[in-house]
Automatic annotation (TrEMBL):
One Pfam family recorded for the sequence: SAICAR_synt
One Gene Ontology molecular-function label: phosphoribosylaminoimidazolesuccinocarboxamide synthase activity
Sorted UniProt keywords: ATP-binding, Ligase, Nucleotide-binding, Purine biosynthesis
Catalytic class of the enzyme: ligase
Protein's recorded name: Phosphoribosylaminoimidazole-succinocarboxamide synthase
Organism: Symbiobacterium thermophilum (strain DSM 24528 / JCM 14929 / IAM 14863 / T)
Length: 299
């Protein structure tokens, strides 16, 4: 990634954050890919642009539900050198500086992944009792809020909602839970119009002053499990439109899921890039129409 000549505040597995001034940051999404919390040696071409463009569209479309940190996706006026600006455009957002709430707000609408494994063992998902008789990929009676404590160095830790309330208090917990469920329900309806099922997703929130806003990314293939609606079958695994081919390949290799990650085959990189682009293509028109109907503009 090119050096924008700004002070770097954070380098995550995928995103890098740079300081613009006391109130604004530049959030850059790279093409890096991580799975099992390990970054792979090769990136996925175009991935950062997909993440950025989807987040910008979703931030615009969900502003009526909750405020967010997006200022602009226009890098003009930042004083970046021309060659740097050209490389960063399309993969960078100017955002408000926020104090992160260290809880990952996960909402699940379908039974998949670790939730399915837990349900088979105990009839619960993250400790929440569910009706008997559900199958793999079953739609849940209602979406459920299953928070996790943020861990920047490894796996986030699933915790009961009561633990979040103990740490954050009832007012903050009620707010992030209510907004997470409202965001999921809204986005699930949008995804349906685009021919997809939003099986689950996760959010981050932060404080800008005394206001809680949505931060980081929104409904990208990195933070959400999208299923093609025409391939959905209850009781069967559904091939999601994200980095699932990389996870499946890595499992087959016998890799121990510790650094360093193995080299990815070229055809696997191409297939993963196609899936990310497919999600953007499916959602772009629907989201643009939705954002326009909600009033458009930037907050």
């Amino acid at each position: 990634m090119p050096d924008p000549g700004l002070r770097r505040l954070h380098r995550g597995k995928v995103r890098e954050m740079f300081e613009l001034d006391a109130d604004r940051l530049l959030m850059v999404a790279t093409d890096r890919l991580s799975a099992f919390d390990v970054v792979f040696p090769q990136g996925i071409p175009g991935k950062g642009r997909v993440l950025t463009q989807l987040s910008a569209l979703w931030f615009g479309a969900t502003r009526h539900i909750v405020a967010n940190h997006l200022v602009s996706d226009d890098l003009g006026g930042l004083g970046l050198p021309g060659d740097v600006r050209r490389l960063l455009e399309g993969r960078s957002l100017v955002v408000r500086r926020a104090r992160r709430i260290d809880v990952e707000c996960v909402v699940r609408g379908y039974l998949a992944g670790s939730g399915w494994k837990e349900y088979q063992a105990s009839g619960t998902v993250c400790g929440i009792p569910l009706p008997a008789g559900l199958r793999l990929s079953s739609r849940l009676p209602e979406p459920i809020f299953t928070p996790a404590l943020k861990n920047d160095r490894g796996h986030d830790e699933n915790v009961p909602e009561a633990e979040v309330r103990r740490r954050l208090g009832d007012a903050v917990t009620d707010f992030i839970k209510e907004k997470s469920l409202a965001l999921y329900r809204y986005a699930a309806g949008v995804a349906e119009k685009a021919g997809m099922i939003l099986a689950d997703t996760k959010f981050e929130f932060g404080f800008v002053g005394d206001e809680i806003v949505l931060i980081d990314e929104a409904f990208t293939p990195d933070s959400s499990r999208y299923w093609p609606a025409d391939r959905y079958r209850e009781g069967e695994p559904v091939d999601s439109l994200d980095k699932q081919p990389v996870r499946d390949w890595a499992e087959r290799t016998g890799w121990n899921k510790q650094p360093p990650a193995p080299e990815l085959p070229g055809e696997l990189i191409e297939e993963t890039a196609r899936r990310y682009a497919d999600v953007l293509d499916r959602l772009r028109k629907v989201l643009a129409e939705t954002a326009a109907g909600a009033g458009g503009g930037r907050r």
